[in-house]
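Example 3.2
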Amino acid sequence: MNSQFWNQVKTKYQLGKLIYGKVEFHAPFGVFVDIGDENVKGIIQIPDFLDSGAMTPEMYPEIGSPVGAVVVGYTEDDRNQVWLSVKPSVLQKSWVKLRVPVVSQV
């Protein structure tokens, strides 16, 4: 793709921006996310899930699950990927408030 295409992608999906999509496909190295753009795919790689601990493919969100993630980079080649992160520390830096349900004990 040309530089005009990538300028448009970078304007629409700015670094640090929270975007939403649905998990579309699992791969050994992460998950692909449909971000509602036929020309670009979102990707969350294994290191971009957790701040600490080991993420494994068995822990991936289910295919079809909604996901909110922060744009952290791009693959500017024929893969046309927007790199995403769901690490709590990255979400906090983007001023995203995480909502954790309170579990009450009876």
